[in-house]
Amino acid sequence: MQKLTNKEEEIMHILWKLEKAFVKDVLAQVQDDKPHYNTLSTIIRNLEEKGYVSHTAFGNTHQYFPVVTKEEYRKGFMSNAIESYFNNSYKSMISFFAKEEKISADELREILDMIEKNK
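That's the Transcriptional regulator sequence above. Prediction below.
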């Protein structure tokens, strides 16, 4: 799975939310730094080339839809992040969040409970 740029990822979040959309529909959902229509169209075509998006043609216009689910992308993204930044160690990742005070002891206990229940 190819890595996405920040803008491509933003567009994918919109497509996951809308499920099917024309370029104008996606453009209406962009919050910050709205790209020009043609620029957005190019970004979506790039997503299609990367295998994230496909389309249905309606004459000269295309309705786009995601072919990679948000869950599939999340798994790939997290696996890559853990491999790249935490030496493939989930323990190192959790330790990082604990040190940064991004996860509480109660949340860690909940995670341990989930692990114990899945054994």
